[in-house]
Specification:
Length: 504
C-alpha cells in the first residue's frame, strides 16, 4: 500500500509541473483534484505611502509671498492619492503660513525679519504618512513706498511709507525699495537722493519679481530729482523727469526698463569711473537742452559694459539733443563695451548715435551691432584712440544708420593703435563722408570694410568723400575694402579719397 501511494503522489506532482508549461497545448488531468476558480483568490498590492520631499523657496522680508500650486510644496512630492493632513501655521521665526490643498501657499514673515524660516507639513494616505520641511530664505527686506497713504507707515507691504527719503534712510545692503505709481505725481519723490551700496530701487513699471511675483508690473512712478548710486545697485521701472542717475567710482550697476525725460540740461545717465558689470537695458530716453542720454567713463579697474535694447529720441520735434551714447575708456582700464539692438531717432536734433573713445594707457574692445537710427547732425558713429591707448578690436556689424555729417569716423592720434572692422552695415545719406579716417603722429590703424552699403551726398561728394583717409606725420593707416562693399555718391566725385597733410 505504501508503494501505491507514492506512485499516486508522483503522478500528482508530475501533473502540476507539466500543466501549462511553455507553449504546450496539451492538458494534464490531475487524479483526485478539482481546479480552484480565480475568483476565489485575493490579490493585495504592496502598501504605498506618500513621499514628501523638502522644499527651498526664496522670500523677501516685509513682503507676502504667494506661491502657486505649480511651484508649491506638492510639485516635487509623490502623493499616491494622499492629502495634506497637517502643517505648521506658524514658522520657526514667527512668520505665518497658509497652505492650500493643492500645495500652493501664502507666506508672511514678521516685520523686519531677514534670514531662514522653516515650516513642516505632512502628507497622508491609507498606507501611511510622510513629513517634509518647507524652508524660506530671504537675504534682504522690501521697503515699500506709496505716496497716496498717510504718514506713520513702517515700510512693509501692508503698511508702506509715503516718501522715498524715509525708505532710503532705513534701507540696508540687500534691501529693495519698491515704489508704487501712487498718485502719478512726484509727491514725496522729489529731491536729490543717494541710494546706499547694495540697495536696489524698483518702481511699479517693472514690478517686483524675485524668483516669483511680489508685485505685478504696472504704471511707473515719477521721480523728480538726481539719484546718486553708491555701487551694487539696480534701478528699474521708474520715470525720471528733469533728473539724472549719476555715480562716481562705483561698480556693478544695472539700470533697466526706465524712462528718462531730460528737460533741465543734465545727462540722463552719467557714471564716472565705473567698474565691474554695468548693464543699461530696455530704457527710453528723450533728449532736450543739448544733453547726452548715456555718458560712461572707466578709469582704473576692469569694466564690462552692456548697453542694449534702449530707445533714444527727442522730447519734442525740434528739440536740441546731443549724443545718444558716449563711452570714454581712460587711465589703464581694460574695458569691453557691447552696444546692440538700440534704436536712435535723432530727428536732426541729435548729434551722434555712438561715440567710443579710448585714452591714456587703456585697452578696450567694442562690439556694436544691430543698432538702427536716423537724423544725426554730426557723426553717426565716432570712434577714436589717443595717447598710447589700444583698441584691440572694434566691430561694427549689422547697423543701419542714416544721415549725419559723416557715417563712420575713425580717429587715431599720438601713439595709439586701433583695429576696426565694419561689416554688413548700412551708413546712408551722409552730408560729407560716408567713412572718414584720421591718423595723426605715430598712431596705427587697421580698418576693414566688409559687405557694407555706404553713401553720401553734398559737398564732400564732389571731393571724393565716399571714403576719406587723412594722415598727418608718420602715422600708419591700412584700409582694406573687401568684396561686397557698395560705395554710392549723389554728386560727381571719386568713391574713395586718401589724402596726406601735404595734399597728395
Amino acid at each position: 500500500m505504501e508503494i501505491q501511494r507514492e506512485k499516486v503522489l508522483g503522478l500528482l506532482l508530475a501533473g502540476l509541473l507539466t500543466s501549462g508549461c511553455g507553449n504546450s497545448t496539451s492538458e494534464t488531468a490531475i487524479v483526485g483534484t478539482s481546479p480552484v476558480p480565480a475568483s476565489q483568490f485575493t490579490f493585495e498590492e504592496d502598501p504605498t505611502p506618500p513621499v514628501a520631499f523638502d522644499d527651498l523657496v526664496s522670500a523677501l522680508g516685509n513682503a507676502t509671498l504667494n506661491q502657486s500650486a505649480q511651484n508649491g510644496v506638492l510639485a516635487n512630492d509623490l502623493v499616491y492619492g494622499g492629502t495634506i493632513s497637517s502643517f505648521d501655521s506658524t514658522g520657526s521665526q514667527g512668520g505665518t503660513l497658509t497652505l492650500q490643498s493643492d500645495g500652493g501657499f501664502t507666506y508672511t514673515p514678521i516685520l523686519g525679519f531677514v534670514g531662514t524660516e522653516t515650516f513642516k507639513y505632512t502628507l497622508s494616505n491609507s498606507d501611511g504618512d510622510s513629513t517634509a520641511t518647507l524652508t524660506l530664505v530671504s537675504t534682504g527686506r522690501g521697503i515699500f513706498v506709496d505716496n497716496t497713504v498717510g504718514g506713520g507707515g513702517d515700510g512693509s507691504q501692508t503698511n508702506p511709507l509715503n516718501n522715498l527719503a524715509d525708505a532710503i534712510a532705513q534701507s540696508l545692503s540687500g534691501d529693495t525699495i519698491y515704489v508704487s505709481a501712487g498718485d502719478g505725481l512726484a509727491t514725496g519723490l522729489s529731491g536729490n537722493f543717494t541710494l546706499p551700496q547694495g540697495v536696489d530701487l524698483a518702481g511699479e513699471g517693472a514690478g517686483l519679481i524675485l524668483g516669483q511675483t511680489i508685485e505685478s508690473p504696472g504704471t511707473p512712478p515719477i521721480l523728480d530729482g538726481k539719484l546718486t548710486l553708491s555701487g551694487d545697485n539696480k534701478v528699474s521701472g521708474i520715470t525720471f523727469i528733469g533728473s539724472e542717475v549719476t555715480g562716481s567710482s562705483i561698480s556693478d550697476i544695472a539700470i533697466v526698463e526706465n524712462t528718462f525725460r531730460n528737460v533741465d540740461g543734465t545727462d540722463s545717465i552719467e557714471l564716472v569711473d565705473v567698474a565691474g558689470q554695468v548693464v543699461i537695458q530696455g530704457n527710453e530716453f528723450f533728449q532736450d537742452n543739448d544733453v547726452d542720454s548715456i555718458y560712461l567713463t572707466t578709469f582704473t579697474n576692469p569694466a564690462s559694459l552692456d548697453i542694449s535694447g534702449n530707445e533714444f529720441g527727442l522730447i519734442s520735434p525740434g528739440a536740441n539733443g546731443d549724443d545718444a551714447i558716449q563711452v570714454f575708456v581712460n587711465g589703464n582700464s581694460v574695458t569691453t563695451a557691447v552696444v546692440r539692438d538700440n534704436v536712435m531717432n535723432g530727428g536732426t536734433g541729435m548729434e551722434r548715435a555712438l561715440l567710443l573713445e579710448a585714452n591714456d594707457q587703456s585697452r578696450c574692445t567694442y562690439i556694436a551691432e544691430n543698432n538702427t537710427g536716423s537724423g544725426f547732425s554730426y557723426r553717426a558713429i565716432d570712434v577714436g584712440s589717443q595717447e598710447s591707448a589700444i583698441i584691440e578690436s572694434a566691430v561694427f556689424r549689422n547697423n543701419v544708420l542714416e544721415n549725419g555729417n559723416v557715417g563712420l569716423y575713425v580717429r587715431c592720434i599720438s601713439t595709439s593703435q586701433a583695429t576696426i572692422v565694419a561689416e554688413m552695415t548700412v551708413l546712408t545719406d551722409a552730408s560729407n563722408q560716408a567713412v572718414g579716417v584720421q591718423v595723426v603722429d605715430q598712431a596705427s590703424l587697421a580698418l576693414a570694410l566688409r559687405q557694407n552699403d555706404l553713401s553720401n551726398s553734398g559737398a564732400e561728394a564732389a571731393e571724393g568723400g565716399g571714403s576719406r583717409c587723412r594722415q598727418v606725420g608718420r602715422g600708419n593707416a591700412v584700409i582694406r575694402i573687401d568684396h561686397g562693399v557698395r560705395l554710392r555718391q549723389f554728386e560727381l566725385g571719386q568713391g574713395i579719397a586718401i589724402r596726406r597733410d601735404d595734399g597728395h
